[in-house]
Structures are given as structure tokens and as C-alpha cells.
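ESCALATION

Customer reports they have been waiting on this structure for their group meeting. Please prioritize. Original submission:
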Amino acid sequence: MAKFNPWHDVSRGENAPTAVTGIIEIPKGSKAKYELDKDSGMLKLDRVLFSAVHYPAAYGFIPKTYCDDKDPLDILVLCSVEIVPMCLVEAKVIGVMQMVDGDEEDDKIIAVAANDISVNHYNELEDLPPHTLREMQRFFEDYKALEHKSVTVQRFMGREDAYRIIEESIRLYDETFPNGNDHDQKLEQQALNGQG
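Update from on-call: job pushed to the front of the queue and completed.
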């Protein structure tokens, strides 16, 4: 019997790419780097951040997406309240932060919680308070500094670019996991082939 895995078994949202389901791994303000364990579908503590910084927004991923770094597409969700880990949130996409982590592209979709009246009126990155994007950029450029790892935020782009990136990650997911729930078998096959 196949086990439930949030990455593969939760809908990415009926209105993707304009609005998506975000699965939150890390609440805003956390110094803990939680991430989905791909094998078990549980949340694990990857590490406590080395630097004196904390996540500037709720952080997680969009289910049923896949990127070149072998992970689902990351999402930052702005909300006026703390969103707890493993919570599903309907997220309205407003832009994307293009980033290079080590040598890999690592895009971060930027969205607002669709059911939070305090933020759901934001439609574009330009609508956000100016400090918000600077805080995001500074966090991601600084948070691995004491680990002697390099992260570069290349640029922020608008929602049309974000939609395109989401659509590409959906296409790549569908190509990589064509049988949906047979993801365990696919991952085992990749591991056997030295791709996982």
C-alpha cells in the first residue's frame, strides 16, 4: 500500500499558477530549518541556522512541482499571523526571487495568503512595503554565511515570470513522476541509477 506524501499527494491548487497551495515547512521568525523528508513525508529538523537571522516569511513548497535541484518549487508566503509547519495555505502568487545557492538555481516564489485580508490586496511585488523585499534578499544572502556557503539573489521578477516558473516546475514534475502516486517506486529507481 502506498504511503501518503504531501509532495505527491496534495493538490497544487485548482487555480495554479495564479494561486497555489503552499505547504509550510518553516514559520516566519524561525531559526530552525525544517524540511520535508522525501521518503517518509514527515517534517524533519535539517539544522538550526548558524547566523543570527530568522525567516522573513512562512517558507515551504508547492506540491506536485519539481525543479532542477531535485526538490519541489519553494514558496515564501506573506501573512499577518504565524502559519504553523505542515499547514496548507492558499497562496496568491505575486512574484519570484531568482537565487543561486552554491552553483544551482533556486527560485523562490513570493505569494500572499489568499485568506488574510491584511495582505491579500497585494497583487504585485511593487505593492509590498519596500523593506519587505530587502529583508528577504538580506536573509537569503546572509543565512548561510557562517556555514561558508555562497548564496546570491540575482533579481526579483513579477508575477508573469513567477507563473512561467511554476508552469515549468509542473511540466517537469509531470515528466518525472508520470504515474503520480508511484513516486516511491520512481525515487527508488533514481537511487538505484545513482540519480537520487
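Sent to customer with the following note: Residues 159-176 form the longest helix (18 residues).
Escalation resolved.
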